[in-house]
Amino acid sequence: MSQFDQLYRQVALSVATHPVVEKVVSKQGWALAQRFVSGESAEDAIEAIKRLEQSGILGNLDLLGEFVTTPEPANQNTELILQAMDKVHAAGLTPYNSIKLSSIGQGQQIGGQDLGDVNARRIVARAKQYGGFVNLDMEDHPRVDETLRLFRELVQEFGNQHVGTVLQAYLHRTEEDRRSLDDLKPNLRIVKGAYLEPESVAMQDKAEIDAAYRRLVYEHLQAGNYCNVATHDHNIIYDVMHFELAHGIPKSQFEFQLLYGIREDLQRELAAQGYTVRSYIPFGKEWYGYYSRRIAERPKNVLFVLRGLI
Known about the structure:
Layout: H1 3-16, H2 19-28, H3 30-33, H4 42-53, E1 58-63, H5 71-90, E2 96-99, E3 109-110, E4 113-114, H6 115-129, E5 133-136, H7 144-158, E6 163-168, H8 174-180, E7 188-191, H9 206-222, E8 227-230, H10 234-247, E9 254-259, H11 264-272, E10 277-283, H12 288-297, H13 299-309
Parallel strand pairs: 1-2, 1-10, 2-5, 5-6, 6-7, 7-8, 8-9, 9-10
Antiparallel strand pairs: 3-4
Helix pairs in contact: 1-12, 5-6, 8-9, 9-10, 12-13
């Protein structure tokens, strides 16, 4: 990314974590956050899915909240996710959920077991019961090894048709991580990366990140695996479309995933062309961290906030 974009992102994320800023925005910013968040309840998220499905767009639900440090909120989050899956199934839809392991107890030892492992198994088992799917979101770099370890175990236990995970293109380690998973024939969501990571572990230059992103997608497709191309970068999207045609990759082997509230025109356009398109639909009361990362992604997003405040 340019020096300006890099500086903007660093400043935006740093400001967002200031306690006073978080308190003010959390109290007054919900009306603005609704641009990126479907609502506070599972019912709100289900209504968003139904609206998007009218345009041929599928949904990927994400209960917001992360980095909890005690068992009680981790178990509460797990129950909310399970309840949301039940409600989606009752509405005649197939559950498709993304989960942050830090929100359900990753790293907390209970009775000699990792609470995140225990709760993730409960969630994936419920998804399998409904013929659904769970995606293990990838968070900041210290959690990568544990997330990939659990992902491998869950695929071996429940099958790759019920659980997938995320790889972040900007991490230096990611291409090797992708190759190390090939034996699982994994369903992977490829993203550029949204956390503020040091140069020692993550690329900082936009062109370098974009090139790494393309390599990851192309190698994953050529290995015969299912790929979730998660980006709003229309240049990358069009390049993937050309790659698919040039290499005979069937449309059934990949999908485009975009964020709720962002480029819905592009989402409808891709769906109309026969591509599988899935919208990442966040919901819940703990929306601030997700919202601040959306604002930090592009200077254009902060203009939206300023217009709302005015």
